[in-house]
Amino acid sequence: MIQGMSHLLEVACALLGQAATGAAAAAPAEATQSPIGLTHYLVVSALVFGAGIMVIITRRNAIALLMGLELLLNSVGLNFVAFAKFVAPDRLDGQIVTLFLIVIAAAEASLALAITLNIFNSLNTIEVDEAHSLKG
After folding, report:
1. How far apart are CA 34 and CA 30, in angstroms?
2. Any idea where the domains of the chain sit in the sequence?
3. Which long-range contacts (CB under 8 A, 24 or more apart) does 129-136 make?
4. Taking the alpha carbons of 28, 33, 39, 43 in that order, is the dihedral positive or negative?
5. Are 20 and 33 a contacting pair, CB within 8 Å?
6. What are the residues facing 127 on neighbouring strands?
7. Spatial contact of 54 and 72, defined as CB atoms under 8 Å apart
8. Per-residue pLDDT of the chain (136 residues; tens, 9 = 90+)
9. Chain centroid offset of residue 71 CA
10. Which three-class secondary structure state does DSSP give residue 36?
11. Which DSSP helix (H) or strand (E) runs through 15?
């Protein structure tokens, strides 16, 4: 599901990029500025962040909490890349930070899934409220 959400974000960004490229190709040479600005990226990032917060607040399932956390990390990565594109387009700082963020998110997901599987093996549930005592 996490990969599905990130794939959805990639498709949305690709569509936004194609729309900007198509508009730039149709416009005269002096008006080649993209209609997609920093505000658009920040709005998408805020929506993804809000969705992640809502998932974390409303769900008690450990897998759903992990998906919400991944949404939060994806929105932060989108902010880094958007600010890097509009503030300093010749530098790669935002992309490098986002790459590290993706690596950290992958490590966090694998460790959290291992802990969740261990909880499921001992308690036969992945509900967070049920796992308050981890005594075997």
Report:
1. 12
2. 2-29+37-131
3. 129/60, 131/62
4. positive
5. no
6. 61
7. no
8. 555 556 555 655 564 565 445 544 444 444 456 688 999 999 999 999 999 999 999 998 889 999 999 999 999 999 999 999 999 889 999 999 999 999 999 999 999 999 889 888 888 888 887 777 666 5
9. 4
10. coil
11. helix 2-26
pTM, rounded to two decimals: 0.69
Q: How far is the C-alpha of 105 from the C-alpha of 100, rounded, in Å?
A: 9
In CATH, which of 3.90.1150.10, 3.10.20.30, 1.10.287.3510, 2.70.70.10 is domain 2-29+37-131?
Answer: 1.10.287.3510
Q: How far apart are CA 62 and CA 40, in angstroms?
A: 32
- Return the structure tokens found at 77: 């990565």
- CB–CB of 64/72 below 8 Å? no
